[in-house]
Amino acid sequence: MLGDSPAVHSDPEILGGVPVFVGTRVPVQNLIDYLSGGDSLEDFLRSFPTVRREQVVAALEQAGEALKNIARAA
């Protein structure tokens, strides 16, 4: 985990505000596309070496928490 540092952020100056991994221009959607297409996390990390494994794990944990909160609210 990255501690208190965010793994993902959105900045209108970077790719028009598309959520990206912090310190990169790699959209989080790329990770989702890789995984939903059957590629492994290792494939993603090889293709996007500027993204660290810790960032991906933190982003997936954050996404999981967000989904739990949505489910609880429904």
Q: Could you please describe the fold and organization of this structure?
A:
- The protein has 74 residues and is mostly helical.
- It has a single domain, classed as Orthogonal Bundle (Arc Repressor Mutant, subunit A).
- Helix content is 50%, strand content 5%.
- It is built from three helices and two strands; from the N terminus they run ββααα.
- A two-stranded antiparallel sheet has the order 1-2.
- The radius of gyration is 13 Å and the shape is globular.
- The protein starts with 7 loop residues before the first strand and ends with a helix.
CATH fold category name: Arc Repressor Mutant, subunit A
Q: What's the rounded overall pLDDT mean?
A: 91
Quick one: CATH superfamily? Winged helix-like DNA-binding domain superfamily/Winged helix DNA-binding domain
Number of helices: 3
The CATH top-level class label: Mainly Alpha
- Numbering strands along the chain, what is their spatial order in the largest sheet? 1-2
Uncertain regions: pLDDT < 50 for 5+ in a row? none
Which second-level CATH architecture applies? Answer: Orthogonal Bundle
Alpha carbon gap, first and last residue: 29 Å
Largest sheet report: 2 strands, antiparallel
Approximately what portion of the residues adopt beta-strand conformation? 5-15%
**What is Rg?**
13 Å
Rough shape? Answer: globular
User: What helical percentage do the residues reach?
Assistant: 40-55%
Beta strand count: 2
Structural class: mainly alpha
Sketch the topology as an H/E string, one letter per element: EEHHH
Number of domains: 1
